[in-house]
Amino acid sequence: MTNWHERWMSQQTGWHRAVYNDLLLKHWPTVQAAESSNVLVPLCGKSLDMEWLAQQGHTVTGLELVSRPIEDFFEERGLTPQQQEIGKLVRYSSAPFVMIQGDLFDVQPSLVQADAWYDRAAMVALPSAMREAYVDQLRALTMPGAVGLLITFSYPQHEMGGPPFSLPDEEVAALFSQHFELQCLEQITLDDERDRGFSSSYSSVYKLIRR
Q1: Residue 117 falls within a domain, yes or no?
Q2: What tens digit of pLDDT does each residue of 89-130 get?
Q3: H-type alpha helices, 20-110
Q4: Residue 180 is part of which domain span?
Q5: Is the dihedral of CA 130, 131, 135, 138 positive or negative?
Q6: Is 129 among the domain residues?
Q7: Which of 86, 124, 130, 191 is most buried as measured by Cβ atoms within 10 A of its Cβ?
């Protein structure tokens, strides 16, 4: 946690984008989440994508380890959230947003039962050894039939230590296929990532349905 806190405090947040994610805008309609859905956004930071999801009529529940981006997210929108301590967690709420600060693995299903979810940067922030537990937690915090959009990033793992860590298609299939229906909506070769020293890299976009 100290590392992530220091990166937010020093603004070493290269994953944060000042615009909505173009793949979210392109593919969210394919997910077909009901307008009234509660959308879960794991490891949300202060992503603008949560604002866009709210504009679609959704309520949004973000999970974030560090308090700084949560406080920034509400302050930048002129919102004063109510705060509630729940064990090791702190729940911030100001409609249509709820953000829970703490370790995402400490979040109990009684706190979150989402109808949909969006993952642009959560799984790639976790090393492979933690991903099975992440998928189990995602399943625990979503309703049967919940729909999701997953955006991956894959490259030869030996070429960079991460994060972001490489998340290849075969690992997505191995982790999700037992309890989710998967549909790959698009795969994009990332030629511009060669500047980072990768010999090859790509992103895949998945629609998932929780069984």
Answers
A1: yes
A2: 999 999 999 999 999 999 999 999 999 999 999 999 999 999
A3: 22-31, 49-55, 67-76
A4: 20-210
A5: positive
A6: yes
A7: 124
* Other CB atoms within 10 A of residue 15 CB: 15
Q: What CATH number does the domain containing 34 carry? A: 3.40.50.150
Element (H, E) at 92: strand 89-94
Q: Are 143 and 85 in contact (CB under 8 A)?
A: no
Residue in the block written with tokens 């009901």: 34
Which letter, b or e, does each residue of 126-153 get, where b requires 16 or more Cβ atoms within 10 Å of its Cβ? beeeebeebbebbbebbeeebbbbbbbb
Contacts for 165-169: CB closer than 8 Å, 24+ residues apart: 165/124, 165/125, 165/126, 165/127, 165/128, 166/124, 167/123, 167/124, 167/131, 169/204
Q: Is 39 domain-assigned?
A: yes
Pairing of strands 59-64, 38-41: parallel
Say if 192 falls within a structural domain: yes
pLDDT value of residue 2: 45
pLDDT in tens, 158-197: 999 888 999 999 999 999 999 999 999 999 999 877 777 8
Spatial contact of 148 and 117, defined as CB atoms under 8 Å apart: yes
With a CB cutoff of 8 Å and minimum separation 6, the contacts of 178 are none
Give the count of domains, the chain. Answer: 1
Which secondary structure element, helix H or strand E, spans residue 89, and what is its range? strand 89-94
62: its two tokens: 């973000």
